[in-house]
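Take a look at this chain, tokens included, and explain the fold to me:
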Amino acid sequence: MYETFLDEHRADIVASLDGLTEEQARRSLVPSRTTLLGLVKHLTFVEKVWFDEAITGRSRAEIGIGPSPDESFVLADDDTIAGVRSSYLQTCEESRKAAAALSIDDVVTGNRRGPLPMRWIYLHVLRETAQHCGHADILREQILATDGAPSRS
């Protein structure tokens, strides 16, 4: 059930990029670093923190991610919709594989917060992904309204 709900939100965040140009996906509409493409890139970081670092105990450097979530929103010049989307989808698949070997009550010890049950991991990632889906819906609506295109329902 946890993974089913999480997968629905994973699909929603990916769909937030559908039909957009590279410029639209990168467009900044708020004072923070938040953009549609940046949200997907950030959620790739989130998946790696909780389904790699927390489960395996590997360091963020070993995983290939930065030390803090703030920089995960930053887009490189070569970040594209296709590349960021592909990385996120691949990371989600790796998350599913890592979690498949564990039960919901198993405790993982790789996160700096200390030992946490997988139930906590799922609920945290579900909450954060859902929250960012809401951000993405609003940003997408603003972009499409500004550009005179109909929003998706």
Q: What stands out?
A: The radius of gyration is 16 Å.
